[in-house]
Structures are given as C-alpha cells and as structure tokens.
C-alpha cells in the first residue's frame, strides 16, 4: 500500500487485521482519509504518520494500540477528525495536539492516559466534540476551554480530575453526565457535586468541626460506645442500598427517539445489520462516539408488541457475560426499540458462511462453550427458568474478542416455579426445533438442548439444517448419526482437518467427542437428552483435552 503514491482514502475498518501500522504509510502524502477502526492492531502508533500533513480524517479506534501518542501528531494540521478511542494508549496527552486549530472532533476516550488535560486545548477553536472519558487523567479542567465557543459535546467522566469545573463558554450548557466519577471535582450545584471551598472558609469550617468533635466526645462518648455498632450497621446497609439505586440509574441510561434516529441516520438501510420476524437491527453511533445496535420492532406486524414486551420482561432481570447486553429501551405509541450493545464481529452465521472469514477448531469450540454458558444460565441461573426457543447461528453475536453472546429473546418462554413445560402456538426456525415443539407446541428446557445440538452440528460441519442435501428422511441429525463414528471425517468441515496437519489425530478425537455430545443433545425423547449444565461441563473437558494435546 505504501507504493500507492496517489492513494486518497484508506478504509480498512471492521476486519481482523493485527500487527503494526506500517510506518511507511507516513510517506503516502496523498492520503486524506485513514480508517483502521475495529481491528486488532496491537503496535504503537508510528511517528512517521506525522508526515501526513494533508490528512483530513484519522480513525484508529477500537484496536489494541499501546504506548504513547507520538508528538508528531502535531503535524496533522489539516485534520478535522482524530479518533484514537478504545485502545491502550498510555502516558500524557501531547501538548502539541492544541496546535490542530482545524480539528472539530477529538476522541481519546477509553485508554490509559495519565497527567493533565493540556491547557493548549483552548487553542482548538474549531472543536465541536471532545471526549476524554475512561482514562486516568488528573489535575484541573483547564479554564482555557471556555474559549471553545463551538464545543457542542464533551465528556471527562471516569478520570481522576480535581478542582473547579469551569462555567463559562460551552460549560454553560453541559450537565453532570460529562463529569461522572471524578470525586475530587467541585463547582456549581447543577453538576451534582460538592461546592468549592475558599481558604478562609476551610479554616473556619475546620475550627467549627474541631469544637464540635470535642463537645461530642465529652457528652456522648458513652452513648456511642453502647449503640455505635448497631448504628454503623444500619447506616452501612442504607448506604449500600442507596449506592445500588444510583448504579441502576446510571446503568440504564435514557436514549430518546430523536437521538436514536440521529445515531442511525434516520434508520438508513446502509446501517442495517440484520432482520428477524418482527424487527430490524441498525448500527448507530451516538454523539459521544458510542456504538450501539438498535433493534426496531415493526409495529405493523401482529405479534411485534408481544415480542417487544417479552424481551423487555426477560432481559430486565438477566445479567450474564454471554448474553447480549441491553442498554435501554425506547418506546412511544407507534415505535418500539431496544438499544443493544454493538457487536463488531457480527453473527456466527456470517463467520461460518462468508468466503473470506474462517474460524478454526478452537475458536468454534470456545463459541459453543460461550453459548452453552448462556443457555445454562437461562435454565438454572435464575429463579424462573427461561427457554430461549430460537437458538441458531444468526442469534449468536461475536464481540471484539470473538466471545459469543446469545441474542433475540422475542419468542422466549418463562417457566413458572414447578412447571416442567408450557404449550405454545409460536413456531421457531425450521430445522432447529425439537420434535415435541414442532408437533405439539410443547416447550421445555430440553427444546433448547435440542437446538444447541443442531447448532453444534452446523458449526462443525458448516452445513445448515436447511441445506439442499437434506431431503426426505435425511436430516442433519440423521446425517451425522449415520456417519458416527467411523466416517465422521466425511461430514465435518474440510477446512478443520486438512491432510498433512500434524495435529489431525487430536483434532479428530475432539470432533468425535463434539459430535457424540451433539447426538446426545438431539435424542428424540426429551427426558433422554443431556442437560445443558452437563453439556457445558463436557465441552469444557473436550477443550482441555484439545489444548493439552496441542502442547
């Protein structure tokens, strides 16, 4: 790429690139736009990029970049956007950034930056968006920032900043949300923080406190000794409850319809990530740079309202690392949407069937363990048993680290205490439905186990249960069963066990164990199927054996 001397734009976002940013890119002086976001680049940022003096936009967010931000960044004089967020940059913010007077958007959020916010930032008079949250920044917020009259949005939250928050210029319109979790900040009451104290006030206050302490010690010391323990316990309990309430409020932030519409560019089809029976999912970017997925329900369809209510009912009480996180919901009379955590690597379905993507054996096994962990939690980790009812590759989402998350609870069912099953008329995706579900509408946790068995077969054979080869009496379950164990190599994905592989024997033993488990999951009789807890335990043992054999 460094030989493309006339290259104007380089867009490589949303891939799996790793390693370092080529230093020679700094010599491609024709570059105006560089976007390497959402990859796994894990080097430091080369100083040579300072040679791109005509660069307009530079986005390298959501990577694993480390080290200090090079001082040579001051040479990007033409830049209007620089986004270095969601990396591992450390050290101080370069003072030289303040010389970029054309910059309108700067995000250094979610890094490991230390030291002060440079006073020179007050010289970036064109700046409209400034995001420095989730770092280890200390010192005061410079009053020089009051000169940034075009600044529309800023965020200093989750740092170690101290001193008084400025009130002039753009600070006149910001809220406390821009300064969360900076315990040493003080200022105006509208920021929901303590007021700043002058020196004379401090002396007077200290004197009053001392007098009060001596008086209290003399009068009520015996009383404190007698009842202190009980009082402290009560206060601690009350404080914990209060903190829990506050954390819940912060965790479920509100996003308006207007913000959602803006984030998705009017629910533009170019941002469409996928669709289901009752909904469409759009990628969105909030003003502070936060990525999200908006699941918008088609309220014109019968069943959409019920699907929305079901997801809200179930997900408001569930918390697990392998379930898709719901940020909030957004609803009005003619609009229903869930705002979900954005999963940059898309669905398992995409990874299984794209020609330019590949998952190795261990990656597929890890994703199956993630899915099994989530389903085990639904079945056993909550007071009410939850049956997902629609487990399939398109409902398994992959995050930045390729960790699997189960999504889409639109037709999920809750089993009341003491109930082993419920009946329904709702039909899930053909090919993944357990026999008793498809024939009689009987739903139990065993239905999820069956679907999980089909999901495992599909993941390691790379054949959909709806594939054209499965006609008449032949199903994917029958196909695997007929090949087990002697001819299992004929049905598993060819790319997992290629001839000449030194570890082909260990891999085949692993695949045999996986397919054996899948067959136990897909037995016709529900009571004969293995439980999800036991399936998860078995998968973890299979993984341990595979890793040990590799070493």
From TrEMBL:
Q: What class of enzyme is it?
A: transferase
TM ranges: 209-232
Q: Which domain of life is it from?
A: Eukaryota
> What Gene Ontology terms describe what this protein does at the molecular function level?
ATP binding; protein serine/threonine kinase activity
Catalysed reactions, semicolon-separated: L-threonyl-[protein] + ATP = O-phospho-L-threonyl-[protein] + ADP + H(+); L-seryl-[protein] + ATP = O-phospho-L-seryl-[protein] + ADP + H(+)
**Protein localization:** Cell membrane
By its UniProt entry, which InterPro entries does this protein fall under?
Answer: Kinase-like_dom_sf, Leu-rich_rpt, LRR_dom_sf, Plant_receptor-like_S/T_kinase, Prot_kinase_dom, Protein_kinase_ATP_BS, Ser/Thr_kinase_AS
Q: Which Gene3D superfamilies match?
A: Phosphorylase Kinase, domain 1, Ribonuclease Inhibitor, Transferase(Phosphotransferase) domain 1
> GO terms for CC?
plasma membrane
Q: Which SUPFAM superfamilies does the entry mention?
A: L domain-like, Protein kinase-like (PK-like)
Keywords for the protein's UniProt record, in alphabetical order: ATP-binding, Cell membrane, Glycoprotein, Kinase, Leucine-rich repeat, Membrane, Nucleotide-binding, Phosphoprotein, Receptor, Repeat, Serine/threonine-protein kinase, Signal, Transferase, Transmembrane, Transmembrane helix
Query: Is this entry keyworded Glycoprotein?
Result: yes
Q: Under which EC number(s) is this enzyme classified?
A: 2.7.11.1
Q: How does it sit in the membrane?
A: Single-pass membrane protein
The chain positions of domain Protein kinase read 267-551
Residues that, per the record, bind ATP:
295
Record-given protein name: non-specific serine/threonine protein kinase
